[in-house]
Structure formats: structure tokens, C-alpha cells
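Dear colleagues,

As part of the handover before I leave the project, I'm documenting each prediction I ran so the next person doesn't have to rerun anything. This entry is a single chain, and its sequence is reproduced below.
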Amino acid sequence: MEHQIGIYDNYSGSPRFCKSASSITKYHFQDTIIVFVCKEGQARFTVGYREFNMSENSFLAIAPDTPFYNTGRSDDFRTDILAIKNRTFESLAQGLVRIYSRQLLFDTPLHRIPEAKAWICHEILGYLKTLLDGDENFFSRHIIRNYINILFFEACNIMLHEPAEIQGKNRRKEELSGRFVKLLEEHILESRKVGFYAEKMNLTPKYLSAVLKDMTGRNASSWINEYTMLEAGRMLRTSPKTIQEIGYELGFATPSHFAKFYRDMSGMTPREARMESGL
């Protein structure tokens, strides 16, 4: 994950984020999510065309390819900074995190952190920094994956528990998107058809896809394909069943259809994926 994830702070070293407030510099990181987690002091940021005032125990999440700059800060301003490539986040984040993170990044990027949880966030970021700085740990990739999910789950949980008047206007669509992902997790072996999930939600397939497109940038078929891919990868790594049996269980009519789907989605064949797992 080298160069895909970075943990920095504004008081011990990253020249990328250490510009003084007097020399205002606009930042623009393509395909990168930036999250500031304020430890002390206050700061003012312009993100896109909006201005946000940070203070102790708050975080500001900046969407990929969004220009931002610091327009002022107190002398005691201290912040941890998480930078993660969007494609890396997409590969790490679990379904519900990816649903709610869209609102977090685009609609309501600034949030207060409950005091009881603020120190946990900083401890996690500090621990991840030791791993990324080269602390020898055979399981570092798995640890980083899990902790990134924990951080974003907590961020989304904070957002969802804020008073209704400061939440986004799309609560109903968020609920539908979250319900769809849960249904996918439960029924992906049962059906890969949009109509199947729309019927369970008492929606039309067209409306379901429109909701998902609006909230996540992707339609229902795209989500179904991703969960099929995730389940296929899991089964190829862990199941003693043959590749042909796995394909049939996932709803593919022939082994060649399964092989083409898996290759198009992952860049490798099911057989290559299985060989990597050692099965």
C-alpha cells in the first residue's frame, strides 16, 4: 500500500501539509481523499466554494479532486491528516461505508467527534503511521485494511447520529441504499438480478438504480457485479469446491461465462486466483 495511504500531521513533518497560513496555497490532490482530524486549536478551510471552521475534536473530510486551502489557523492548531487514494479506499471500504461516505465527502464534510472517541481516532492514526513508516509487521496490510474501515465506520456513525436538521436531505435515499447493500450481502448467491432486490424493497428496478446512482455514483447492476466478484474471490480462496461448481453457485450458466466475468472484473482468471490462494 506504499504511496496509496499516508498519515501526516501539521506539527512534526509533512512538507506537503505544513504551509503557513500567511502563504495561502490551494491544494488539489487528484483521486485522493483527505481527512483532517483536529486535536487542538482552530482552523478555517475553504473546500471547493464552501468555508468550514474546524476546532478541537472535529474532522473535515475532503472528496477526491476537490480544491481546498487553509485560510487561517490558531497558533496551537494541531491536526492528524489521513490521505488515501480513492481507488485504494474503494478496494478497502466495505459496502455500507462506501454508501455513506459519499454523503460524508460531498454533502456534510465537517463533523464534531464525541470526546470519548476522539482519542481513539488519534491513537488509531498514530498506530497506522508506525505501520506505514516501516514498522515490521507481517500482517500490516490486513491491519491497515481493518482500521481504515473502523475509522470510516465511526465517521459515518457520527454523521448519522447528528441532529436531523444538520444532516443531508437524502436520508430516505441513504436508508434505501443501505438496505440494498444488506440484501446483497444476504442474497448474492440467490440472485444477481436487479429486479429481485427491487421487489424485496417494493421499488421498481429503474427507481432503485436511480437512487443508487444518485447516492453512490453507481447503478444497481454495478453493485451486484462487485458483490458477485467479492463472493467469487472469497469462494475461490477458501472453498474446496471446483471452479465450475463455484460458477454455478454464483448463477453463471457456463464455466466460460464465469471465467469471462471474473477476468473482466479482476484482470485474472478464476484459475489464476485459485492458484494465488494455494488451493
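The first helix runs from residue 86 to 92. The longest strand covers residues 32-40.

All the best with the project,
I.
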